[in-house]
Structures are given as structure tokens and as C-alpha cells.
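**User:** Here is a favour to ask of a fellow structure person. Please take any protein you like and set down a full record of it. No explanation is needed for now; the record alone will do.

**Assistant:**
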Amino acid sequence: MSQIEILRQYMHRLQADSQQEVRPCHHFHSITSSGASGLIAVLLGVFGLTIDETAAIFTQVCVDVFSDNEATSEARTQSLKSSLTRVFSTNGITPQARMRDNFGSRDSCKVSIGYAAAANMGSWRSFKNYETRNQASYDITIIDAIVSAWAAPGVIDNISVGSALMQEELTGTMMAFNNPTIEALKEARDAFSPDHRVSCVISIGSGKKGIVSEFSIEDFASQQTEAVSEEAEKRFGGLNLYFRFSLERGLEKTVSPTPEGFGVIHSHVQAYLSRHTNDELLDRSIEASKVTSQRKIRDLVGEIESSRSSTAHNIPPLSPFFVIRETPMLRMTEALLMPGEGGQKIVVLSGMGGSGKTQLAIKFARDNFKKFQHVFFIDASSIESIRSDLVTHISAVDPQFKGQSIDDALENLAHPNAYVTTQWLLIMDNADSANVNMLKAIPSCDHGYVLITTRRALVEGVAPQSHIKLDVMSSEEAVEALLSSALDPDEPLSDQGREVALEIVTQLGHLPVAVIQAGCYINKQKCLYDYLNRFRANRQRILNQYTRQRDHLDNRDGLYAVFDTTLDAISPQSLQLLTILSFLHFTNFPRQVFTLAASGGFSYQRYDLMERQVDFQQAIAMLRDTLCPQGPWDEDVIDGILEELQLYSLVSLVSSPSAVMLRFHPLLHGWAQDRLLPEQRPQYRLAAVRLLTCGSHDDARQYREHLRPHLEALLPSFEEIHVNDQGSLAELIRIEPTRKQWGHDLWITIHRKVLAAHGETSVQTSRALIQLAHTHGFRGDTAKEEELLRKALRIRRSLCGPKHLETTHAAIHLAWHLYSAGPTPRRVRESKALARDVLEIREAQLGPDDEKVAEVLVTLGIAYFLQGKVSQAQGYFERAVQVTTKALGPNNLKTLECKGRLATCYAHLKDPRAEELHREVIRGREINFGAQHINSIYAMASLASWHYFSRRYDLAEAEWRKILEDVRKIQGDSHMDTLHAVGCLALTLYQLHRYLEAEALFKEEVRGRIATMGPQHPATLRAKSHLSQCMKASGSNPNRVSRIL
């Protein structure tokens, strides 16, 4: 609107001087427009309207389109089309009118309206009301031409043109050519001739951004606009033919599409032109238009193109919220610019979508463009985009270049000439397609510099030594980026606000594009302190829609659009697995669980309590289709899927001592789930539950600590999970102190459901009863545990008979309980009797080498050990080691458990084989868990125990101190492992007669066990007994124990 008002003043003075009516179409030979001014160009230059007529129409269209601040871009687009149709019809113009129709002004005024292909926004194209040999243009309706010129992310939608077989999406030029001065000169060159003389060039802007105004989409183009203005002024300012008019800062804060708002614009223009310098400039421009200069279009275009050879080749603007990433920027600079060996220098910058690769490349190009003769910014997303950009940009540099293919362009770069030197930088942006061989898209020569940005973790054969993997921002960088986009320049920030910002960027996983979009949303809604509540309540809506009015990056439809681009790039199996895992936690899923789950056909159930429905088999089928498409399990399949996901930076594999872990970005994880329809989610969730349930198998015990966070991710929908799976998943956290009550309540619920379905006297109900019993034991109520275990055994004997395997299962659970919950002589005798009966039945029915036989052998060995009959215990443990080694392997966790118990027997018998057996256990634990894992560290206790029983207390003390230090660091002060280590060190000090030190540790153990296990738990009672003995030995009154505690 300010452009119209400036033109109004120009035409008013011109008519006053000539004393006759002069229309813009008769005065200006050429009008070139960008963005919304495309409508002004049509009204003035094509239709030949007056300024007043143009102002009235433009005002009405603005009111029609922008009155509703909450309108979507789709609604605004429709409003624009409808408004244009009405005003055209009112003025006697058919809505089907086209640019090249004869409206009487075509011969006197050449009009070009800028547009760009959405796939290549850095290349100027235009709709014209005249023919030219240099560029073919679509012959679309004027209304469609105006809509495409207005198109901008979140404001007006792009349009699609072309035939049914080839559609092209067109958008506006605001992002790259908001100031089309240079393009106007080129259009004039093509419309007339390079030797045509120029009287004046008038550039009219729409105003600079106000210092305190809100962020608008024009900000993204402001750097390019001002850069072109400054450059044109520098080149043409002394020739008295270039004149630039644009309102100063601070206008748009008060503007609204109302009569009052347009009046404000008028007032600002009057004030702007009333200044002496601007008033004089306006008069000078009018006088210049009346004379013919000696300057030819050829001279002006050639001068500006030669001066911009290193900057004018499609380098996009830098985000106004860009935050420097010091480490990757330094690595890029060193790899490309540091002196070293000669030859071509190539850097590959890879990372997931939205990690800031393109912005870093732009920053590098803008900071270092003077170090290169030419900088070419190429859209490398496809072969055709590479060809188009290379040919276009090289043609702009080398007038002799007539090539049309990639090979022609690369050949030109490889062989320097008078126009193209060896000092070029080729930025290949978005080289994500596996169909593009980047080696064939780079000049084959020993000079030049190449910077490739890609989501692919591996670009075959390109710069393996200069590959920079771009991670997410650091916390400091992310907070700075969020606050720079969320707060106005003068807006204060409290310490609490900075803490909230840190929490926000943590939730967003420090992903640059997500952080900036969150900041823009916060700035618009003024909701820094409420953003996370909004995000958690409706993540999908916010990440899909909120940036449509503020987005200045390439993800014009929201963050999820960045991730959507991978849908066509990856295989259905990879997408399927990504979606299944999205229902679990986003980090540290053990890769080995896939193998374990497949070995059981994905159907493993720890507890068979209730009948499964059809969705159970559907989930299994989904996993088989994804991970076993050819039928049998093949490690190459999962390797291929993970390789593909890594290739597009969708997953990271992190090797730990015990497993290879899968890690996803949390927002990518959320996208994979949010893209599903509501009716699809249950089936994918069940497939995720299947994987996790298979991870509850005893053979996966080394992964349980990694699987617990994945169970936590399922808790919000836990009620929807089948009771069989609920029981299996509860196994993952059955002994976690903070989850004991949860596990107890869960098994109460499961038992009630199974009881209602099967009745009290059923095998299924007794299975639930056994697990419910153990939850009472974990909470310290061993009496209730025993009561329920005996009840379960009675049910089994009644239903199945004394020799059924189901009965032996209940019997062995009771046998374990009898010796673990206070091993009195009577209870140990009963435990042994139960175990002997079970052993006889299982050997007869399963064979002597079955692992369930070893389970009973261990039970008997413990019972004899507790009776002090260590030699007899040794025999049972030796046989258990033989059975498990044969059935499961020497390093299976059950085998190692048997070896550990046997080593303890050897230690008590002072058998020298104890030390070597202890070391076998340690090696086996390290194979399963890694040397620094808590289980491996705790396995070292076997040596400490050996030294203790060998009365080598000095060695035992040093080992227990180290074990306690490591366990406390990993597990915390109140964990059972820590309390056990405390007690063992206390016992060692007690043997060294250092009673005061031992007493302090015994007190710590007792307090910890009371807090975590209850005052009557057997382990608590033993710890109290040890403390009492220690106090008695030190001369303290042992009766003070209860009072002290």
C-alpha cells in the first residue's frame, strides 16, 4: 500500500509538470514486480488503470484477504481468488483473462510478475504481457498469476500448473527476490534490447521491519532486500538514474486492513516524502525520466552481474534466529579453507532433518564468499534439480557456456577459462536421494571446493575423511536460539524463564528447527511458561500447524513436514519398524531383543492367564512381515533395516558393553506415532508390546534395565494391554523399590480378572496367585506370601495331581520361599522334601539334562548349604553346572549363577578351585554385561567373598570397598545391591576387629533395609542381628539397637 502512495505522489508531480493526465502505463516502459505488488503491476501496466483506481482495488482485496487474522492459508487463498474475480468482473474484465490478452497498454508498458518453482525458489521466472525468446512462460490466467506471486508459507498457498502428466508447483519470489531490481534490468534487456538506453530505474520497497514489530514472513527476505538495495546504490547511485524509495522502520506495528490502517500508511508516506532528502530524490527521479542517458541496459546488467559473481548464485538468506554452532563450523572451515595438500576439497555435512545443515552451509558461504570467485548453491535433491541449477548458474557466469546437461556444466567447472576460475565453491544442498550418485554430480578435477548437506549418514565414496555428522544443538545453543526467537529484543527474562526455556529445549530434543519453531510460536502466543502444557496436550497440532504463519525455514508446513520427506525414501519395512518402536521410549532399545523375540516366533508369553484375541496373531504377523519377510529369521534383514534408518539419520546405533542400543530423536519418535490414524494405533502398540514382552524372557535378563524405560512409556495405556502381557511386563521391574506397590496392585488386579474368568480352582488362577504371593514377599509380608503359595499348591494338586508339571511349578516356588524367608530347620527340611519330589518328577518326565531339572538342583543345593551340609550342596551345584552348561551354554546367566553357587561351596570347603571358578563367573558376566556394568562389578564380590572365607581379610576389605564405591555410584544409597555391599564390608571390618567402623556400616545397612524392605523382612532381621553382635563385641549395649534405629 505504501508503494501505491509513493507512486501516487510521483505521478501527481509528473502530471503537474506536464499539465496533462499521465497514466503509469504510458510513462513507464517496463514494470517488474515481486510478491503482492504483482497485483499493482497488473492493474497499472496491463489494465492501464489510474493510481486512484488501483488503490481502491488493492485496498478492497487486502480487506477481503487479511481481515481475519485467524484464517488459514487455504482460506486466504480462496478469499484472494474470490476477491479478484469480483473486482475484475466489476471493471468489465473476465476472470479468465490472461496476461497476453490485448488490453490496450501492452505496446506501451512491458509488465513482468515474478514467480518461482517451489522446488527451486532461488531461480527467478516471470509471467509477462509480451513475448520474449529468452524464457518460455506459462500462459495462465491473470488471477492465477497474481495468486502465485502472492504465495508465501503460511499466507497464501502455492498453485500447481502444467499438464496432467507434468505438474509444477509455483510460489512467490519474496524469499529470494523481494527486491527485484536486478531482475527488472534483465527483464528490460530481454523485452527491448541490451543496447537500449536507460533514463531511470525506480525501485519502490514496501518498508523496512520495525524495531519493535512482531516477526513476519517478510523478515526472512529483509536481508536480501537491503543487500540488493545497497549494492544497486553502490553501482548506480552516482549515475543519476537509480532511485530507491522505501518507508523507514516502525510503520507496520500500527497497520491493520481497515480504513484507519490505510490512513496511517498514507500519513507515513506523506511524512516520509516531506523530508528534504526524499523530496529532492523524488524530483530528481522525475527529471531523470524526461531525458535519455548514455547508459545502456547491457552496461548496467553486466556491471551488476560481474560484481556479484561470488554471491549471486542462489544463496538463500540466513535465518534471523541463526545461532552459531562453533564445533561443526570450525570443522567445516578447517576442512575447506585450512592450508594443506592441494586438490579438490570436499566436506559432507550429514544429520537428521531439521538439524540445521542448510543453515550452517549458508552461514559458511556468507562468511567466506570473498575467499571464492564463484559460489554456487545447488538444490541437490534430484538429478534434474542439479542439472537445472548448474546450467542456470554457470550460464550466468560464463556467457560462452551453451551446455544443457550436468556433464556440460561439470566440464565447464573442471576446465577454467576467462569467466570460470578454479576458485569456486559448490554447495550441494539436500543431497538426500539414494538415486543421485554424488560422485557423478561433482566436477572431476584437482581444484574447487564442495560442501554437501544430506540426511544420509553415508554418501558413497565421497569425502570419507571429511564427513561431519551434525548432532542436535547443545543445551546452551538451543536455549539461545529459543529465546532469540521467542522474546522481543527489549523483553526481560527472569531466571525462572531461562529454566523454563531449558526444559522446553530438552523436551524438543535440542533439534534446531523445532526449537526455532517453538520460539516463534511462543513469541506469537506469549506463552513461554505455558508452552510445555500446550505441547504435551496437542503435540501433533502444534508441530504441524503453528509455524504456518511464522516459518522462515524450508519446512513450510511445520516440523512434521520435514520428517514426511523421508516417507518415500525408506522401505515399508523400515517405516513399519520405526512406527512400532514409536510406542516405546525413544532411546536405548537393545538390538538383541529382535533376535530373541524372533527365536520364539514373536509369541513368547511368560504367563498364560487368559485367552488371546485375534489381535494377538495380527501383531505377530506384523512383526514377522517386518522382520522376517522371507519366513525364517535372518540377521541380515534387521541389519538392512537399521542400515537404511541410519542412512537417513533416523536412528543412531550406540554400542554398550552389553548390547547395541537404538536411539531416536524424541520428536521423530513422536512423528512416527502421530502420523497414524486412530484406528491403526492399537495394532502397532500391541506389536511394540510383543517385542517388549519377549524381552521379559529369562534369557534377556541382561537387558532388563534397558527395557524398563520402555515399559514406563507404555504405562499411560497399560490398561489396554492384555493381562498376559501385563504380567510379563511387570517382571521387568518386579524388584524395583519404587515400583513394588505398583507391581503388587497390578497383580491384585490381574488375579481378580483371571479369577472372574476361570474361577478359583483353575491352573490360570493359581498362576496369578503365585505371582501375587511374591509381590507380598517383596513388600516384606512373607507370611502372606507363604499362605498364598500353599493355596496355589493345593489348587494344583487338586486339579492336576501330585506328579503333574504344573504341580511341580507351584511346589518349587514354595520350596524357594521356605528357605529364603527365614530358613529355620523345619522350613529347610520341608523345602528339601518338596524339591526332592519335584526333582524325581521332572527327571522322569523331562529327562536329566533339562534346564528345569537344574532349577531344582539349585534349590536342593541351597537347602543343604543352609543346613551346613556344604559337601552335599556341592554335589547338587556341580550337577546343576553340568546340566545348564549342556542345555544353555557356559556363559548363559543361569549357568553362571550355578557356577557362582558352586564357587561359594568351594570357598567354604577351602577348595582352591573356588578362585578359578569365581574368575569364570566374572568373565561370563563381562561377556553378557560388559566390564563396567553393575552385574559385572558385583560379580567381583565372588572374589571378595573367597578372600573373606579364606580369612584374607585385608584383600577382602580392599575389594569390598571398591565394590561398594562402584555400586553406590551406579545404584544409589538405598538400592539392595548397595545395602548388600555395605553389609559385606561391615562383616569384613568386624573380622578385623574394627568394631566402630563396622558398627557404623551395620547401622547404615539396617536403616536402608527397613526403609526399602520393611522391619520384619528376613534380610532386615539378619542385618539387625549382625549389628547387635558387633555392638556386643565393641562393648556397647546391644539392647540399644532398637532405640538407636
Notes: The longest helix spans residues 825-846. Confidence is low (pLDDT under 50) at residues 210-217, 305-312, 545-557, 1041-1045. Residues 872 and 890 are 23 Å apart (CA to CA). The two ends are 82 Å apart (CA to CA).
